Automatic annotation (TrEMBL):
Needed cofactors: Cu(2+)
Record keyword Oxidoreductase present: yes
Cysteine pairings via disulfide bonds: 106-122, 121-187
Residues in Tyrosinase copper-binding domain copies: 365-376
Pfam families assigned: PPO1_DWL, PPO1_KFDV, Tyrosinase
Cross-link (2'-(S-cysteinyl)-histidine (Cys-His)), chain numbering: 190-208
PROSITE patterns assigned to the protein according to its UniProt record, in alphabetical order: HEMOCYANIN_2 (PS00210), TYROSINASE_2 (PS00498)
PANTHER family per the UniProt record, alphabetical: SHKT DOMAIN-CONTAINING PROTEIN (PTHR11474:SF76), TYROSINASE FAMILY MEMBER (PTHR11474)
Xref: SUPFAM superfamilies: Di-copper centre-containing domain
Organism: Arachis hypogaea
Descriptive protein name: Tyrosinase copper-binding domain-containing protein
Length: 600
């Protein structure tokens, strides 16, 4: 080999090393600039000796292969590193795209611009970094912890919860089991503290509005429960649940309203102390109603969010893989009652309804944990409906998605979703209560003839530019508006409806993440006199919890097969969808509305 060939070989070897580093490490912009300049030098050198290099050969399209064309400028693929797409990286179907946070690269979280506190939410990491994989499954014959509804518990049991919270609050601030440190776990996962792993380190992880919502919170409550039980010397202690979906549990538990208790929190809405009935469709401008009427509203609302939401996409949220943008689609119960109860508890007179009303501080309120214990219970109930509903357990990326938590022995533990699917293997079950919402199917507010006449009138006037019926998008939702949406299929057979759910899909764009936003969705309703939550025409609500300072986008899915049956509208070629902004008018836009058919 000639000396010149050896020089070229050395240069090419160096190129390969640098190419590998770029794909496996996070590179600052300044370093990237230097590498890019160096690559141009190499390319020029190579071009002078091969007489075919030209700057016109460059391309801005991401290219992660080492084809001959890229040797002319081996780092050209990274000119737009923020624009790398999953399809250009994951070229083989068997490559895992499971989400896993890069915990060593944790950084400041995104807060609302008017945040009342500025927490640093990253966890305290051991040095050197040591992580163990979760293997603490319950032994086959070991007694199971039983999570019970708070309204059925006695003072003695609740005293244990009070004691555990008090001990956690007294621990040193640098102890991962400290109460505020535990609260920061929620903050860092929900407000973009963790980046995805390379080459998508520019994308922040958010466990909300996606298929990560339920399993993340299941693990979160699990480790919180283990820590608390260890601190009080009772490994069988279980975090109780706040059963706001049952009639007896539809008020803030009295134990959390005692100012002398560790369960008390000063940043709560003082109007909502017991015996005030919780509003599962709450918003800050909500008008008061009678207790009996509120219970009726709540039960019908739960029926819609649980029973009608019969596909995994509608109930659990959208698919979220490595390389994807966060918040692909939000699930029904995550929207409400999850979001609404958060805001019902938080202070309405604070900028972001702290503490429960915004994600960066929500877990500072002790009622957060019984609230999410109930949501975990509802996930289990949903999977048991209709003889067993399908979740995402046939998707390897969902099963392999990872989170990190500290256990009661100060070990940093890596967990995945696959190990969370059976609560008995995690050592706990739920004591059930009656589910009155299972039989709370809503009724129409008007007769079929009245609806048809109103709909015909609206369709006839839809060509008039002065009416509120529109067909153009994007739509800034600053006032009540109706949209005519075509149905690709009508008069579906029973078998077709058993196989596929008819779903109203709304693309949410330009959502102001730092603001409280809520709008209700109605189908074939009277725009001038919209129905309440207990009526069939009211099909859902979109409500956001402030947790950032940017504009975001997501999707909102509403199952309407059963609704169309109730409204006797299955033979109609279209439906009229009315969007009614309740809070935050003009702070969200709708990119599109369409009907899709999703397999069950």
């Amino acid at each position: 080999m000639s000396p010149f060939s050896r020089v070229l070989s050395t240069f090419f070897a160096l190129i390969i090393v640098l190419f590998f580093l770029i794909n496996t490490t996070t590179i600052s912009s300044s370093l990237f600039t230097k590498i890019n300049a160096f690559s141009h030098f190499l390319a020029t050198f190579h071009g002078k000796n091969n007489h075919h290099y030209s700057s016109n050969d460059q391309t801005d399209q991401p290219n992660l292969s080492l084809r001959r064309s890229t040797w002319r400028n081996p780092f050209i693929a990274f000119k737009g590193i923020n624009d790398i797409s999953p399809s250009s990286v994951f070229t083989k179907k068997n490559i895992s795209r499971a989400i896993s946070p890069d915990i060593a690269k944790c950084g400041p979280v995104e807060l609302p611009p008017n945040a009342i506190t500025l927490p640093y939410c990253c966890p305290i990491l051991p040095s050197p970094l040591k992580i163990i994989d979760f293997k603490e499954f319950a032994k086959p014959n070991a007694p199971l912890r039983v999570r019970k509804p708070i309204h059925l518990l006695d003072d003695e049991y609740m005293a244990k919860l009070e004691k555990g919270i008090a001990i956690m609050k007294s621990l040193p601030e640098n102890d991962p089991r400290n109460y505020i440190q535990q609260a920061k776990v929620h903050c860092v996962y929900c407000n973009g503290g963790y980046p995805q792993k390379p080459p998508f380190q520019n994308l922040k992880i958010d466990i909300h509005r996606s298929w990560l919502f339920y399993p993340f919170h299941r693990w979160y409550i699990y480790f919180f429960e283990r820590i608390l039980g260890n601190l009080i010397g009772d490994p069988n202690f279980a975090v109780p649940y706040w059963s706001w979906d049952s009639i007896e549990g539809m008020q803030m538990p009295k134990y959390f309203a005692n100012p002398n208790s560790s369960l008390y929190h000063h940043l709560r809405d003082p109007r909502h102390l017991p015996p005030y009935i919780v509003d599962l469709n709450y918003h800050v401008n909500a008008e008061s109603t009678t207790q009996d009427q509120q219970v009726k509203y709540n039960l019908a609302f739960m029926y819609k969010q649980m029973v009608l939401a019969d596909t995994k996409e509608v109930f659990m949220g959208g698919v979220y893989r490595h390389g994807d943008q966060a918040q692909p689609a939000i699930g029904s119960v995550e929207l409400a009652p999850h979001n609404t109860v958060h805001k019902w508890v938080g202070r309405a007179d604070l900028p972001s309804q702290e503490d429960m009303g915004t994600f960066y501080t929500a877990a500072r309120d002790p009622i957060f944990y019984p609230h999410h214990s109930n949501l975990d219970r509802l996930w289990g109930i949903w999977t048991s409906l209709d003889g067993g509903r399908k979740d995402y357990r046939d998707d390897q990326d969902w099963l392999d998605s990872e989170f990190f938590f500290y256990d009661e022995n100060l070990n940093l533990v890596r967990v995945n979703i696959r190990d969370s699917l059976d609560t008995k293997k995690l050592g706990y079950v739920y004591e059930e209560v009656e589910l009155p919402w299972l039989n709370a199917s809503p009724k129409p507010s008007r007769s079929k003839l009245q609806r048809q006449e109103k709909k015909a009138s609206l369709l006839a006037s839809s060509q008039d530019p002065m009416t509120t019926t529109i067909t153009k998008f994007p739509l800034v939702l600053d006032s009540k508006v109706s949209v005519v949406v075509n149905r690709p299929k009508k008069l579906r057979s029973k078998l077709e409806k058993e196989r596929e759910e008819e779903v109203l899909v709304m693309e949410i764009v330009d959502l102001h993440s730092d603001k409280d936003v809520k709008f209700d969705v109605h189908v074939d309703d009277d725009e001038e006199m919209l129905s309440g939550p207990d009526k069939a025409e009211f099909v859902g609500t979109f409500t956001s919890v402030p947790h950032g300072s940017h504009k975001s986008k997501t999707k909102y899915l509403v199952a309407i097969s059963k609704v169309l049956e109730i409204l006797e509208a299955e033979e109609d070629e279209n439906i009229v969808v009315t969007l009614a902004p309740i809070v935050g008018k003009g702070l969200v836009s709708i990119g599109s509305i369409m009907v899709e058919y999703i397999p069950k």
